[in-house]
Amino acid sequence: MFASIVVSVLLWWVALTRLWRWRTSRSVLTLGTAVVFIFMALHTTVNIGAVDRLISEAVGVANATSAVKHGIFFGICLGASIIIVALRVPDVDRQRRWIAPLSAGATAATAVAVALFFSAEDAPQATDGYQFDELYVHLPGYAESAAFVMGVAAVLCTVITVVVLLGWDLGTPSGRGLAILACGVAVLASYAWIRGGYIVAARLGWVETSTYALDLTTQLALIGAVLTTLGLLWSSIEGVFRSQKQRRDFAELYMMVVKERWPGVVRDSWTSFDPSRRTVDRASEVLDALSMQADADKLPEHGVPATPESIARWVDTGESGGIGVDGLRPPVGFDAVKWVRAVGRAFQDIHLCDKAEIRK
Questions:
Q1: What are the structural domains of the chain?
Q2: What is the pLDDT of residue 167?
Q3: Neighbours of 332 (CB within 10 A)
Q4: Cα(335)–Cα(68) distance, integer angstroms
Q5: pTM (2 d.p.)
Q6: Which DSSP state fits 304?
Q7: I need a surface site. Which of 32, 49, 68, 332 has the fewest CB within 10 A?
Q8: How many CA atoms lie within 13 A of 255 on its CB side?
Q9: Please, are residues 94 and 88 in contact by the beta-carbon 8 Å criterion?
């Protein structure tokens, strides 16, 4: 119970951050990821026993929460389908044109699953989803509904696995994330095929009802969900550590020229969810502060070619060495972050040399 609540809260937090990122980027891939996490969070929340029973009582039909879960499951499938489109269709406008038909398909599939579910004869309210599956999932109506959902999920997860296997590149963070995602989706495909096969076999009387398949697929679902979540978040996780390393390279320089000398250049992106954007803004603040310092020191517009070492020496000692304002800007082949990191490392080296001299 407690673990389910914790997982639900974490998934809602991830879903909201992805939704916020999509609001600023309008990326179809980010939209698909946000949809997946929103419905995963919903599914985890509904799986909490108290919430399960509350929904059934609110609907007024015993075990109605299982029908709601079918709709939520197709919501996850919708997000996954959008991710496939984003990975395989290069044109952004064409990607967006896929969203409406995919949404219509998910809605139609939900309607079919719910209609099949409510065609079943009423059964006593189960304490939770697991007990419902154990007691009733093989019964007429319930079995057809669950088998339909598992069939769609099995085919979709298999397709996603193949698509991702064709598109990953282990040399990039997103590629490594796709590799983990492929493993997670392959496990989920196994879950759907095994569970769907068991439901069909039990419904037709080919096998005796048993909890073995349910226990096995529950474990597979958990493993697959964890790997899928990790894969979808991997690029962001690497981005956090990469951004931290980048900012450490110019932390001392930032403290001196921005925090101590020109705090007015600080931008309002501290609350941004995107660590790479925060790093770019911090680097831009350093460049703005250097321009302010150049104005204060009355540096000429044009001067001798500047290097990271000469800029760091000017910041530390105030001796410009003939560099001009144009030399403070990133040269060709350098973006703001790369240039500021180079200056920051040179500034750190100067301070390390000063400390070594003091020890002598």
A1: 2-243 (1.20.1070), 250-359 (no CATH)
A2: 67
A3: 4
A4: 50
A5: 0.78
A6: B
A7: 332
A8: 8
A9: no
